[in-house]
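Milestone M4 deliverable, item 7.
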Amino acid sequence: MNHRLETMARPFMRVLARWPLRAKQWLGAALAAAPFVVLLVLVVLDRGQVIIQARGELAGIQVTGTVATLDFELQAARLAQARAQAGDANAAADVARRRATEVMARVDALAQASRSSGWAAWWQAERQRSGADVAGLSSRRLQALTALVAEGSGLLVDPRPSTQSLVSMQVDQVTSLAEDLVSVQVDAAAGAGTVEPARLQALEDHLVMLRARHDALQRAGEEGLASWGRARERMQQWLDQARRAPGAADTDRSRMLTLADQAHAGLVQLHAEAGDRLAQRLSERARGAAVVVAAVVLACLAVGLGLAVAVHSMVSGYLRALRLLGNDIEALAGGDLSRYITSMRHDEIGRIGCSLERMSAQLSAMVAEVRSSAVRVGQAGQSMGEDGQALANRTEQQAAELRLSLATVDRLGEASRSTARTAEALDDLTTTLRERIEAGSTAMSDAVESVQALELSARRVAEVNGVIDDIAFQTNLLALNASVEAARAGEAGKGFAVVASEVRQLAQRCSDAAAEVRTLIDQSNRQVAESSNRIQTTHGALASVTGIVNEVSLRLRSLADTSVQQDTHLDEVRQHVQGLDRITQENAESVGKSGFASQALVEQAAALRKAVASMKLRQVTADEARELVERAMARVEAVGVDAALQEFNDGVSYVDRDAFVYVLDRSGVCHAAAGQEALLGQSVYDRPGWTFAMAEHFMKAAQAAAARGQGWIDYTGCDPSSGEPVAKSGYIVGLNAELFLGAAIHRNAEPTLGVSTAAPNGAATADEGADSLLGALAEAGT
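Output delivered:
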């Protein structure tokens, strides 16, 4: 249902969306006033109709009253004429006729004034018919004229019972009763003075009907007519007299005429009073309706005026509030987030103002966070760029060293392969050497055996030489014996002696030769023994050399295998070094890209800082806090620590919105706090709302930053107004071994109780700064 209504109202809403607020509010006021206007119109129309009807009826009463007066005067003239005919000298028929003529002139004047009405035309026709003499007028025709005027004026259709009773009496019944009374009396005066009972009964019935109408008037709440009692009494007297005196004397006839005059006069008075009462009620009705119309008009005017005043006040108040709100919004759109939006209103505009104030505060906090994060990210990006450049230089140096290492590995590979080839050649040589040594060893073994055989032969020769020596000795003995025998034999034995001498000489030579052979053999034996020993030693040495050669061969083979494996490993090392070279090159490219990225980050941070630099914020940002600290440090360097501390405490020139310069010692005691006199001499451990963990971590981070000379720290502090923990960042600069100076800024982040970190070299890390920046940007986009 709501969706259907919204769909139906959407075109109207689109039209209203193009209207200004004042027009829409006046439209709303007009719509609100429309029921009152409609009510006013209806009331005015209704009461106006009542007034018009009452005035028409009053005009009709004036005419009917005048016509009835004319009728009464005609009746009076007829009674006077009847009395004159009856011999009454006091009958003033001419006077009555003259009065009737005057009243007829009044009727003519009324008809002339109401020429457009139907009764005026009727009257003109009647006047033409009756002529100039009033005697030509008929009472019945005058009553018909009265009925026509009453109908035309609305008297006959008046809805009120009291008015109906008065109209009936004034228009019809009284004049009819008077006409019947006059007719009966005129007939009675012209005749024998008797009245027919039927006519008397008709008059009495007519009187009863008039009484019933009068009673109805009283039942309708109207007060009874004062002349009714006298008129009814006189009519009753006349009726009683007419019943008692049929054919009576002249005195009775005169009394009847007198009573008839009195009754007629009473009816005239009753008619006049009924007319006056009816005119009074109609006038009261007209005045009441006019009062109601005036009251309603005045009420509507008052309501309209009040509504106009209320709408004007509301529109003016709305427009003034919207204008102020628009000025605040324009200020916000112009970047002035330091403006506080206050509203004393409690309506929707006030709530919008409060929401706008909260939005402005949050935007200011977020922009301050973005600006601070941009500053710190720019510093971190610059530090990253410098570190990246240093890393690029080291990477380039490492790449050069890797290329040198790769060349060295190549040379080592070539040397390893050459060593493998040399080892293989040496292995072949050692194999040949081993084979030759083994052959030499075999030959040496054969030589040993030969020497041993030679030694045995020498021994055998020695033995033979011994035998020869024995034979030479025996021969010598035999030669000696022969000589002896030859000597004995003399000359006969002289030849034999010569032979014996020769044999002895031969034996001597054999003995000498045997001795020489024995000497040679002994020398040969000694040499053979020495050679045998040396051959044995050489054989042992060759056997040892063979083992060593075998071992060398094995080691050369192992060296060859190791060289092959080393070459394989060197190939792997070469591949790894080449991979490291590629990685180094890629790292160099990455470092280059990182440098470009850090430069781009610095440029983007600078652009972002420049984009939000024109905004006026409620909070101090990182660059402003750093400028504040640097200005304080410049003052310290200019006048000294003690004088600067005094200036910090005495003035507010080192206070910027929610940031101020403070100086703490290593124990956390405050020695200076610009614009914060209550903090002087107070320790951070004693600050309201600060837990020991918060103070301890703040002091550790601040001391670490001061020890490095300067730097940013992130920590959790306490909001002095609310007592709630808040995230803060501080720029810290060491003054001396005991004091450090700083300034803090509020951060638009969730506080982390008990966690404080220090950013090296006065800049946040890239990840922290980027995360903080992205978080702030995400909150601003939301």
